[in-house]
Fold this sequence. Notes:
The protein is an all-alpha fold.
Amino acid sequence: xxxxxxxxxxxxxxxxxxxxxxxxxxxxxxxxxxxxxxxxxxxxxxxxxxxxxxxxxxxxxxxxxxxxxxxxxxxxxxxxxxxxxxxxxxxxxxxxxxxxxxxxxxxxxxxxxxxxxxxxxxxxxxx
Length: 127
């Protein structure tokens, strides 16, 4: 057991925190995908985007671990301390990520639909 603790002592604390945050977010999004794939495609995709934005949007808060904290914590902290600029900044970051991801999702679904239409047209005889 002492050998494992020694290995962890040689890795910087910030690296461990970022690694745990990223792996935990991936596991949470994977589990959430299992829930949302049973919903209609549009609703499931949008709810997955919202979960992605809530988990992975970086915050604008200050402090030693602010680079690891998601914006939802900055938003909740701003609400609890009644700091309106902090609330609006973190909320706008989350909404920005939701908007960009929704736009990318729309473009991707349009691409897939057009690709399927082209594949169907190629299978028909030209005569």
